[in-house]
Structure prediction request, 512 residues.
Amino acid sequence: MTDSLNRKVGAALQFVQVLFYVVISLLYTPFMLKSLGTEEYSVYSVCTSTISYLSLLSMGFGSSYIRFYSKMKVENPEGISKLNFQYIMIFSFFGTLSLIVGLIMSQYSQLFFNETYSKEGIETARTLFFILAFNMAISFPASVFTSYISSQQKFIFLKLVNILRSVCSPLVSVLFLINGFGSIGIVISMICVSFMADIISVVYCVFWAGMKFQRSHLDKRLIREIAAFSFFIGINQIVNQLNFSSDKLVLSKVSTATQVSIYSLGSTINTYFEQIGNSIPSIFDTKINKIVSSDSLDEMQKNEELNSIFIKVGRIQFLLLGLIASGFVFFGQFFISLWVGSDYKDSFVVVCLIMLPMLIPLIQNTAVYIQRAKYLHKFRSVVYLSTAIMNVVISIFLAIYFGAIGSALGTTITIVLSNIIINFYYEKKVKLNIPQFWLEILKTLPGLLIPLTCGSLLLLFYKFNGWADFFGMIFAYSFIYCVSIYALSLNKYERNLIKSVFTPKRGNQNGK
Prediction:
């Protein structure tokens, strides 16, 4: 299978994975909320968000693998086995370090919660931290094998494993919840499924994908080069944690378990949105690195190809995410009331405050991979870190007075500010044609007028009465959106792309 076809099938499977994950999570979340109760759900959310900070110990080393693999493949193919060994050693160290830090967090779990939490809730947090620390320790070395699969562009296998993980994890969790294991059962099931998926990836890499390891002393020059490149990717990871995980921790200290639960539910919905937004750009990572590393193209040709990818993917991202974001604005409040009850109605505001400004960085996600490949990701990391710290400070004050909505508003302000700055940087330093990018986005707007008008009229004049009405309106809105976009927004390339999905290729007839 060609790399191009592998990317297309991989992208399709990515959407299948996200679809499975979203549908199963939508069915699973109300059951989990009812099984755990407000306080335990709050404790579970805070623990899983806080333990994710341990991933920062790697400081972005994992995201650097594909770049150094691509570089090594061009300059010294025999050195790839040594590179694999170096990464395994480094990530085994990170895994051990994360285990130690996680166990310390478990011992002092009471520091992450205020006096409104019960003694039983704190004890549950202690156990959750303990179990999650072991899961994090295993995930570090396992991530090297996932990175290798991506470097080989074996996206079909990678997505199938992820689909397996997305389906099995909540299903096993339900069994634990039914038998009364609570949040502890959820994290145990998560570890079991992750370990199974990691074993499958390891076996595939070693026995089918030809991944080899050559024992060698740590190459200090290579480690310094990787560390210098990875450091600023690590800062991006810190930014993500500060923007989306710190709010739960802030709320657990200055507000109530109810506010934590409201924010967590809204953050979960936004996670679905981000997963869809990240699904297409990640598939182009290896291709982007190949273009940047190519010796057959001059700088102008490289920039032309990279801009072409940036704009094509950006338009598709905008049209896809525009359907989801606009649909949620029109029907999200009714959906949340049906889904988990009116007690969580403020989650709708939380989602809107985070989702809508996130639309900009998500449709420009390809630029993240381009600047990494060009080794120009430092500035973005510094800007995002500065605004993320600002977000924490603003969110603390807003959370005290406005709870979950206040925390979300702090995130909104800093996302907008950082992306204004970053767009200037993309234009000046990364050599991306930002004016052309936004011009191409503006060309899609005629197709949005009809569905946005219809959605507004439905919101104003139609009274929803149940799930049948909800699904009926979602189907009608999606149909109107897709027809309008196809007729008024898509260019020739995008129409051909859609036709190629539904029209099978025929072999040449009569030898022609």
